[in-house]
Write a structure and sequence with these properties.
The protein is of the alpha/beta class. It has one domain (15-335): TIM Barrel. Helices cover 32% and strands 17% of the residues. It is built from 11 helices and 12 strands. The protein has a 12-stranded mixed β-sheet. The two termini are 28 Å apart.
């Protein structure tokens, strides 16, 4: 479009996170606690999910409006059947610069090659501990952390890089893993990002005392291995980046609780059933699926997206710092993080 699409705070839309399923093969305590997402939990019926063609239509419109980066999420996106077919469709969209996927890594070994062949650019893997006992406790699983590490190596072999790893730190749960994870990432040539524990949704037991502040993370890493700050690549980049002075790559922190970055947020999120969210901490989204299934053309879909984004005023993390977040919020597993 000739005039960039911006919201009421002047923020453009540049990144779209696309959830392809609300299902996951883990029950991480900070995302899908088992007492809420147990055997009786009603996940989305298959016929309610957007088809690959419907997702691709929305992505084409979003790219025309300024989106340059697409990230496929879940739940666990590798649980969506025939996912490489969607990747191939999205990779063919003109104007899309970056097509990535976030995964817990346990299924990556079996799918990395097909995803790369279909046109996926890179992957981000969630990994909250290297210690087997801690990993299983955090993820509430019998699976082994070795499966995640094997998935990372499979992604590397398939050319899905540079590989990034995300770690959510929680005080008294896995913060003792910080230095071990940082050392592993240095040796493995992986970019590690430590994420502050956030109150996404209302079921993950968030308390401020559970947050390990980014400033502490940077101090602990810098004490072990000298680092220096790196300038952001672009204004909407959420990670604060640091370079190891000995040349062993980078590490980052995402300080969404202690140093809110709402004013630079360029992200929109599309749920698996076609709801467009303009904030990770929103209570509800905007239905695009009905437009698609009622026969709207691309111009009508475009007008709806423009109306949604141009009305956006979200700054939830800033409000948390000022007065705390209250009321209902969408769950992370539903919106894709």
């Amino acid at each position: 479009m000739d005039t960039p699409l911006v919201d009421r705070l002047g923020r453009p839309v540049e990144d779209l996170r696309v959830s392809v399923t609300d299902r996951c093969n883990l029950r991480c305590r900070y995302c899908m606690p088992r007492e809420v997402f147990g055997p009786d939990h009603a996940f989305l019926p298959r016929d309610e999910l957007l088809s690959f063609e419907e997702i691709t239509r929305i992505v084409r419109v979003a790219v025309d409006l300024g989106v340059t980066k697409i990230r496929l999420t879940g739940g666990e996106p590798l649980l969506r059947k025939d996912l490489p077919e969607l990747v191939a469709q999205l990779a063919a969209v003109d104007g899309l610069d970056d097509l990535a996927l976030t995964t817990n890594g346990l299924l990556l070994r079996d799918h990395a090659g097909a995803l790369a062949d279909a046109g996926l650019d890179r992957v981000t893997v969630s990994l909250d501990a290297l210690d087997e006992t801690t990993f299983r406790a955090v993820a509430d699983t019998r699976a082994s952390v070795l499966g995640v590490l094997d998935g990372i190596e499979a992604a590397r072999a398939a050319g899905l890089g540079p590989i990034k790893v995300n770690t959510v730190l929680r005080r008294g749960v896995n913060d003792d893993q910080l230095e071990d994870l940082a050392g592993w990432a240095r040796d493995a040539d992986v970019t590690l990002r430590f994420i502050e524990f956030m109150d996404v949704g209302t079921t993950n037991g968030w308390v401020r005392e559970g947050v390990v502040p980014a400033a502490e993370v940077v101090d602990r890493i810098g004490t072990r291995w000298p680092i220096e700050a790196v300038e952001r690549d672009h204004p909407g980049e959420v990670a604060e980046r640091y370079r190891y002075l000995d040349g062993a790559g980078e590490v980052g922190v995402v300080a969404s609780v202690t140093r809110a970055f709402c004013r630079d947020c360029t992200r929109a999120r599309l749920t698996a059933i076609g709801e467009l969210y303009t904030c990770l901490f929103a209570a509800s989204g905007n239905d695009l699926r009905s437009l698609l299934r009622d026969g709207a053309d691309d111009a009508g879909l475009r007008d709806r997206v423009v109306a949604i984004w141009s009305a956006r005023t979200d700054r939830a993390s800033e409000l948390r710092a000022e007065e705390g977040l209250t009321g209902p919020r969408v769950e992370m597993s539903y919106i894709g993080g």
